[in-house]
Amino acid sequence: MISVAEATRLVAATIRPLGVEHLSLSLAAGRVLREDLRADRDFPPFNRVAMDGMAVRYGALAAGQAEFRIESTQFAGQPPRLVQDATAAVEIMTGAMLPPGVDTVIRYEDLTFRTDSAGQRWATVQALPPRAGHNVHPQAADRHQGDLLVPAGTRLEPAEMAVAATVGAATVAVSRRPRVAVVSTGDELVPITEQPQAHQIRRSNALMLQAAAEAAGARTELFHFDDDPEALRKGLPALLSGFDAVVLSGGVSMGKADFLPSVLRELGVEQVFHEVKQRPGKPFWFGQQPGGAVVFALPGNPVSTFVNFYRYARPWLLAVQQPAGTSATGAAPVPAVLTHPIDFKPPMTHFLLVSLEAGPDGRLLATPERAGGSGDMASLLTSSGFLELPPEPEHFPAGTVLPVWRFR
Amino acid sequence: MISVAEATRLVAATIRPLGVEHLSLSLAAGRVLREDLRADRDFPPFNRVAMDGMAVRYGALAAGQAEFRIESTQFAGQPPRLVQDATAAVEIMTGAMLPPGVDTVIRYEDLTFRTDSAGQRWATVQALPPRAGHNVHPQAADRHQGDLLVPAGTRLEPAEMAVAATVGAATVAVSRRPRVAVVSTGDELVPITEQPQAHQIRRSNALMLQAAAEAAGARTELFHFDDDPEALRKGLPALLSGFDAVVLSGGVSMGKADFLPSVLRELGVEQVFHEVKQRPGKPFWFGQQPGGAVVFALPGNPVSTFVNFYRYARPWLLAVQQPAGTSATGAAPVPAVLTHPIDFKPPMTHFLLVSLEAGPDGRLLATPERAGGSGDMASLLTSSGFLELPPEPEHFPAGTVLPVWRFR
């Protein structure tokens, strides 16, 4: 039986970046970029007016001029005209390109206007701006043309969408979504729509895994096989060749109906490991079809399935969306503070369901759930993550800081 | 000009729960539940075998019996048969219903088997279980039939999907998605696919708002209007009656092309407020069409648009998906620790872009970004949230704990 660290290393060793596809930007939200986005122009691309008001030459103000003749009015989106008269001004709007010949903008709040008998408008400055260039966002102040803005490997979140649009990335190269087959096994399972007999239960892991895999960016399909080696031999090959990952739940323990490991090996799937020194979820089986899918065969107890998915399969799904040499944000656990002492004796990693709360001092507080074991599905409802307690020591006092894997 | 607190209150006053729709459970992931989910059976629904091995009567073990005759083998999903002989055992698999007549399960690891000359199998117990009921997950240990499991108002995340499937909720009542029209305005804006002239820029706020609104559960459509009152008068009425919210960017400042507030009022939209004591994003205009959409008219500088969306529009979008009397999880800011001192003089709320990091002691650390102002879109790339600094004091020393609105 291997350690959690070793299992993590072996799962990570199967990570290969997925292929690239080119999508229209508006369809690419949430995808991981596979090309660098660079500034096609300076940011801002011109001396950009940052307030509605009047553009003047600061030298004229400094020389004591208070009233300015309005030579023209310039809206955002209009080409600027040279201001020829050093003592004149342009009434100007936010977003406009500052015209040559002026350098400073005075906002409406600091101006009074009058129109003379000839119909000419004049504005008087009520408050002197502190410096030349005031209320102007100078060309290239933020970024220069050619600068790397969004490197390959970044997920396209709203801020990245805005920048991609600005640089004209109408189509973008992104990772395709991982294809995941979610497979439930177990003769005791009936479809959701059926009324189970006394000794049966409804299929629940499959929908849980589907929702969790889709939230990690995957496209999923659901399958169910009975505990019958022949059905598995017939059904699994198409999944092993047609998907990037096959996530199974059930059928990997020591029971007489736990055919999965032997059938998977028969079908050519190379076993990477079986059983990890962890609770819950010890019977986790992991393998890889040469040239085909990786196989996460998770134990079927709901909490075991859940914890193994978030601990191993989700990080894998996020990682294969990354180009080589980059890592996914949000894939790693974060430190949290245990609010109650915990004892755990067996020398194995303990995944402890916790509710999480942000303390008033900014600390993330983790309170253990009173869970009924790996079959207590309802305990997942009131938890929002699980702490990873290392095999040693046996006692973890309140206040211990431990990594937490969040699932909410 | 009103305070941020007052603006928050006025936006919240327009919140009405959206209508309900009934969806197949597999299509309902991520939606907010509008009905209570209760346990249709006990959790577990029967005394559930939790290990593969052999079920026996504990009394026999306690009386010194070590070897048991295997009367039958029972798989998960098979109806149990009464064990008549108090000294016999059932070989049994995880997930099976414990048969009447036995009460304790001994796992395979603690058993040795032999087959006698008559072909009868026997098992000898190598390690005595600690108590009666060992390795049995008793009926109703976790929840009772009729118990409330998932209350209305809960978002259907993977754990809730599993529980919903278990109780047979093949279709569920959920909130419909809010319909959001995302509207950009501004004559300086050209489509992403076009090469802007020197004084133009590409439309970027619309895609940003679309991605952010969709991530908050909305269905969106994009629109663009030039800075022309006639175009706005023609185009806006269909949006005001056909959507739950209209989110505009640009056209709400003091500029001569900022027609939006007056056109919206002309079209019957009741202005709730215009301008909030905050930086960035002061010119935010908010209104409501009687019987129609609420209107978030956000200033067009990208950082202003962004911050106003996450501060006001996103909480609104999450809240309207909730049934009355419930609140959305993840909609409120969390406390974070300022890593560097900040001074901000104007007596208004300051939204400060920060990068966020989990410190080794479990504290969420917020480091201010060196941002170039409300036009510096690129500063959003390196930030993952913004702190809300109240109008007073002017000086915030390092170590101050402040609420942070996360956008990653």
TrEMBL record, chains A, B:
UniProt name for this protein: Molybdopterin molybdenumtransferase
Transmembrane segments: none
This enzyme's EC code(s): 2.10.1.1
Keyword terms of this UniProt record: Magnesium, Metal-binding, Molybdenum, Molybdenum cofactor biosynthesis, Transferase
Organism this protein belongs to: Hymenobacter perfusus
Pfam families registered for this protein in UniProt: MoCF_biosynth, MoeA_C, MoeA_N
Functional summary from the UniProt entry: Catalyzes the insertion of molybdate into adenylated molybdopterin with the concomitant release of AMP.
Biological classification of the source: Bacteria, Pseudomonadati, Bacteroidota, Cytophagia, Cytophagales
An MF annotation (GO) of this entry: metal ion binding
NCBIfam families given in the database record: molyb_syn
Gene3D superfamilies: MoaB/Mog-like domain (3.40.980.10), MoeA, C-terminal, domain IV (2.40.340.10), Molybdopterin biosynthesis moea protein, domain 2 (3.90.105.10), Molybdopterin biosynthesis moea protein, domain 3 (2.170.190.11)
Keyword Metal-binding: yes
Cofactor: Mg(2+)
Occurrences of domain MoaB/Mog (ranges): 181-319
GO cellular component: cytosol
Pathway the protein takes part in: Cofactor biosynthesis; molybdopterin biosynthesis
